[in-house]
Amino acid sequence: MTQPTSRPESRTEAPRGRHLSAPPTPPTLATVADEAGVSRQTVSNALNNPELLRPETLVRVQSVIERLGYSPNRAARQLRTRSSHLIGLRFEPAQEGTSNALMDRFLHSLTEAASRTGHHVLLFSGDSKDPLDGYDDLLRSTAVDAFVVTDTYAGTPQAGFLRERGAPFVAFGRPWDEPGADHAWTDVDGAHGARLATEHLLEQGHRRIAWLGWEKTSRIGEDRRSGWQGGMQAAGQDTRGLGVRITDNVDAARLAAHELLEDPSVTGFACASDTLAIGVLHACAERGLRPGRDIGVVGFDDSLAAQVTWPGLSSVRQPLEEVAVELVRILHLVLAHKPIGDKGRMLRPSLVVRPSSLRS
Amino acid sequence: MTQPTSRPESRTEAPRGRHLSAPPTPPTLATVADEAGVSRQTVSNALNNPELLRPETLVRVQSVIERLGYSPNRAARQLRTRSSHLIGLRFEPAQEGTSNALMDRFLHSLTEAASRTGHHVLLFSGDSKDPLDGYDDLLRSTAVDAFVVTDTYAGTPQAGFLRERGAPFVAFGRPWDEPGADHAWTDVDGAHGARLATEHLLEQGHRRIAWLGWEKTSRIGEDRRSGWQGGMQAAGQDTRGLGVRITDNVDAARLAAHELLEDPSVTGFACASDTLAIGVLHACAERGLRPGRDIGVVGFDDSLAAQVTWPGLSSVRQPLEEVAVELVRILHLVLAHKPIGDKGRMLRPSLVVRPSSLRS
DNA sequence: GTCTAGGATTGGAACGATCAAGAGCCCTGG
DNA sequence: CCAGGGCTCTTGATCGTTCCAATCCTAGAC
Predict the structure, then answer these.
(1) Which residue of A13, A140, B103, B232 sits 20 to 30 Å from the alpha carbon of A248, by its own alpha carbon?
(2) Is A308 in Cβ contact with B304 (below 8 Å)?
(3) Is there a single domain that holds both residue A90 and residue A119?
(4) Which CATH number goes with the domain that contains B155?
């Protein structure tokens, strides 16, 4: 077996001797090295460059690692390699009422995807007035390797700031307002989603399909709207007077739907959110119209509300799991300073069909 | 001003000279020390024990820190002090359809509360089959200072495991099945919430109020149910035949509600979740009963669904923000090895009243 | 003028890992 | 016989911070 060659007494002997109430000092590289009768560096190599070791040595070291339950101290590793294996994500105070369960799905997928490459997600918050608050501290203290930025719409300054600081990051969301942006991003093709909804309603026999969307200032809202418009035009349908812009609010949608439904030829509604779609369902109920049979309604985001609402709301579902996986993939490339084929990648949402849009 | 006494050339001069494409090396303690004409230790004290410095020195050092934009390197500090200022939270793959927007609210509050004491939240995931997966790695690599455990019901082994390992943690959720548990926890008094709902319905003139809850195996479900039962008994109402246990599913609730509504004396429904409550609303719609006027319905969790559903679903709202603040508070005590007054603290939910339970 | 107390500041060591060389060994080829 | 080169493993230095103990300095007491 291993004959522990007598070497200068290791400092790890002291901690192992005592029995205090405090948790025992976890084993270090030196502990493992002593136990296996090799040097620290060899243990390090066993973990990071196993191919450098002779197979027998590798096995021996590994078994000691296993036996002692050793894991490298992250702080020490981080100090030396200058990489923390942490990904920072500023967690915004998503306003109540919005379908922010999206964030939940996304965050979970991101956590999982990151863990597959040995990374973890670090959440931080910041002053809601200053979209850059929090980033700087983490950068200067070299606490994270990179950031995932989630709101790149409406001229948010994060991307520019991080590029200027030379901080690695990827974005969930295309760089709407930045012509010179050259960072990696992934986004969901909202226009495609709205078009799917529109085409589905057309297939169900609806012709005059209205759009309920957000204010013109919302880039995402306008993007989705363009999908509806495109779908309608491709089918030779006139969209004049059918596109409505309101705030994301059930009651606003209900009122808008009532107005549109004054015209009996309007039988379909594609909406920028589930909240708006539910407003349409309310209007239908008040008019004695049956969703599905009489009026086709499709929402966006496939929130819990869409799933539980009567009679089941069709909705466009974002592939958040894939977004997370893709973000982690390109983040990996960015961190390795490897070239990325496409700076940006657009993923397509899918349509979840429920009774609210089915004639039968 | 400061006369930079000539001292052995500091190693920090090299990095400051070059101009590569790589991001510039951030300033270190030594940089600041040189610049301010003091030793490293003095700069360190300026940050950690300002009262040790002479006021003038303090000001001088602080101004240099400010000017250079210095933040201590977290890895180095963590290595030396053995504390990462990170709080680990295992982010479970909350099943779709459940009102997991809860988690979103909680997580955000936790992030904010933690940041107020200079901590960050580290998310990790683990094999869904092994509830302990992930904890061990983070512990052994000393990556986090403590954990927040969120699911202590149904005999989950996390608490026991962490206590055994001597790892600091606090729990969101009381230790249901552990008589010997001595860890700190915070929970929401579900029974109180259900009682609030029941009393509210009684006030609205309902007498025969049914309970729609989860399977008997759910400790949380049984806890909430006991609140309904207590409220009914206090009002001298018989609960026989009114308490139903089903799975958390709209359709199951709809069917159960239909059955209960066969008895016309049943006019109120307190539910263990919004999903179940919405099932009741569906049944009402199918029977031509008007929620609020004819039937009083109250859900639980105040999810998005409760807010947007017609006609607005009353619901019990958990004080997740307060839970997070409280958890961080006691975590602070635990980390400082200070005694905690109460091991556990129960917070009270509130009732959000909407038309589904209002007669007028 | 010396001694002492104590506040302010300093230099060296340590935390636990990786990097960069170097050293020992065995084999091959001139 | 020895130089040269893999292969395997070891040694010392280093990352940036804080801990520890020592040193400097000033003021007060005798």
Answers:
(1) B103
(2) no
(3) yes
(4) 3.40.50.2300
CA gap A356, A140 in Å, rounded: 52
Contact check, Cβ <8 Å, B278/A308: yes
Contacts of B96 in chain A (CB under 8 A): 105, 307
Domain boundary among B72, B96, B115: B72
Residue B128, pLDDT score: 81
Alpha-helical segments (H) within chain A: 13-17, 29-36, 40-48, 55-68, 74-81, 101-115, 135-140, 158-165, 190-203, 219-234, 250-261, 274-287, 304-308, 320-335
Q: Which of A23, A115, A142 lies closest to B26 in CB terms?
A: A142
Cβ distance of A86 and B122 shorter than 8 Å: yes
Do the Cβ atoms of B165 and A99 come within 8 Å?
no
The enclosing domain of A50 has a CATH number of 1.10.260.40
Query: Which of B98, B108, B278 is facing A91, going by the closest CB pair?
Result: B108
pLDDT value at residue B340: 84
Provide the residue type at B321 as one letter: E
The pair of structure tokens assigned to B249 is 């599913």
User: Please, which pLDDT band fits residue A15 given cuts at 50, 70 and 90?
Assistant: very low
Same domain, B182 and B198: no
Query: What secondary structure letter does DSSP report for A49?
Result: -
Statement to judge: residues B90 and B129 lie in one domain: yes
The residue with greater pLDDT, A92 or B45, is: B45
A299 shares its domain with A196? yes
Q: What pLDDT is attached to residue B155?
A: 67
Q: In which band, very low, low, confident or very high, does the pLDDT at A104 lie, cut at 50, 70 and 90?
A: confident
Protein-proximal positions, strand D, CB < 7 A? 7-12, 14-21
Half-sphere exposure of B206 (CA within 13 A, CB side): 30
Q: What pLDDT sits at residue A179?
A: 74
At B127-138, the pLDDT tens digits run: 888 889 999 999
Residue-range definition of the domain harbouring residue A21: 13-70
Residues B205 and B291 in one domain: yes
Strands of A350-352's sheet in order across: A243-245, A208-213, A266-271, A296-300, A314-317, A350-352
Query: Beta partners for B344?
Result: B185
Report d(CA A25, CA A11) in Å as an integer: 12
Residue A18: is its pLDDT beyond 50? no
The per-residue pLDDT for range A163-217, each reduced to its tens digit, is: 989 999 999 999 887 777 889 999 999 999 999 999 999 999 999 999 999 999 8
For the ranges A210-224, A278-292, B85-99, B314-328, which has the lowest average pLDDT? B85-99
Nucleotides on chain C within 7 angstroms of protein Cβ: 7-12, 14-21
Decide if A4 is inside a domain.
Answer: no
What is the reported pLDDT for B112? 95
Residues A98 and A114 in one domain: yes
Spatial neighbors of B143 by CB under 8 A, at least 6 apart, are: A74, A120, B84, B86, B88, B122, B137
| Residue B1 covered by a domain | no
Number of domains in chain B: 3
Closest nucleotide to the alpha carbon of A11, via C1': C14
- The token duo for B69 is 């934009």
Whole-number Å distance between alpha carbons of B313 and A304: 14
On whether residue B91 sits in a domain, the answer given is: yes
pLDDT score recorded for residue A97? 44
CA distance B60 to B289: 75
Residue B94: pLDDT over 90: no
pLDDT confidence of residue B311: 85
- Strand arrangement of the beta sheet that strand B296-300 belongs to: B243-245, B208-213, B266-271, B296-300, B314-317, B350-352
Q: CB-CB: which of A120, A142, A304 is closest to B75?
A: A142
Co-location of B175 and B246 in the same domain: no
The C1' atom of D12 and the CA atom of B47 lie apart, in whole Å, by 32
Instruction: With respect to residue B8, please indicate whether it lies within any of the assigned structural domains.
Output: no
